[in-house]
Model the fold of this input.
Amino acid sequence: MSEEATATQVREDAPASAYSWYVLGVLVVVYILNFIDRQILSILAVDIKRDLDLTDGQLGFLGGAAFAVFYALFGVPLGRLADRWHRVRLLTIGLVLWSTMTALSGLARNYFTLSLARMGVGVGEATASPTAYSLISDYFPTRQRATALAIYSSGLYLGGGVSLFIGAKISQVWDAAYPGGGIGGLVGWQAAFMAVGLPGLLLALWVASLREPARPPEENASGRHPLFDFFTDLSMLLPPFTLLHAMRRGPMAVLINLAMAAAMVMLAAIMTKLTNNLPQWSAMAFGYYAVFSWAATLRRHDPATFSLIWGTPAFICTALGYGLVSLGAYALAFWAAPYAETVLKLPKEELAFVLGGSGAVSGFLGVILGGRMSDWLRVRNPSGRILVIMFGIVAPVIPIWVGFTTENAALFYVMNFLAGLFAATALGAAAATTQDLVLPRMRGTATASFFLATTLVGLAIGPYMVGQISELTGSMRLGVLSLIAVAPVSLILLIYAYRALPDAEATIGQRARAATGE
Done:
């Protein structure tokens, strides 16, 4: 059987096939490795900080914006490419890239080279979820989609948990065997990066064997090659090409674009003066300016997609509301291990085993239970999935407060488990909601837009915010507890999404046609 478009789109009245579940299993394995490579930095942070002489703010940048900005920005054109090109092939290429850059992180000798490697990991990993979400949406009917997306998303927690154990074990074994550094002077944390990066090259061969589902005819109808559109989309994000796109829309568009650029430069300058962290705020300013420029150009090139994503308050509020859930989740995932090691003085091997295992279990259970519950509520209430996202932002507040104010290690572990369990329930519900608000041909772009919120709001800010507050106050505990402040903001956004969702979903086709003048 050909590896090209041999599968047809799934029938809405039929359950997913056995092959669909097989594909989902492979995608889960890919996502596990994705998060091992992304999150292994957390358990290695104390050693990296010591060897490279870094601050907590710089660690937060490496664990957040250095990866997140490039992950988010390349996710936009790659999401569009996933809408029109061979998704299996795209995922294979991305897997090879991020695995290579993870291995190269092990050769880093300073803050600058490690930052570059983390940026490369971000670019490669940007292929994963747009392609996977689009494939899952084609392989599974609507009534099973949130469950399938939740199972896929469980790889996030399994990978994040396994990364702590693997990273700690490899680092300790290597340093014990080579106290002065091994081959080429490599120390334990460098060996750990290389050990988790290289297996991805073998996994890429397995991914390449998957079948690409056939798309509806309208998704393949285009006079241009998809790669041409990819580079066009990429140019919408990168200065000075952003100004060229603005010029095509007229003088007012140029003025607005320049005003946005000036505002971002001013914001970066102010925040750099306050925090003394130029890389963080330069990356953030570039990221927000690039997203603004892309959205403005998308409005001209694809008004229907713009209308159903950026022009739909229910979509925006769902994405931003969940983005704040992810802000806390990413920050906890990154800082729980350094906190336990430096504040509670727990041994690295113990905390890696307990936090890694409990993080994997809590995340897996939370995302599966949340996905099942959101599907159950969706049948009974058009906005039912939003209730699950609300639970994901409110329920972790007490466990975070108790866990990061106690001196008792056992209580800390239990509360960290509960915080992860509750926060994880929101992901499947949020992802499925954003997929339901767009046409099938827009799913990859919708996924990329959704992940703009989880990365530029969540991952880019969360780990850095905790690190910076820790650095300013001299208390990592206060840094973590500051995460509680985002809950009310997220709740307000989600209440609006809850009210707006039924009408937005009922008028998808009508609004898409209106945007194109049909």
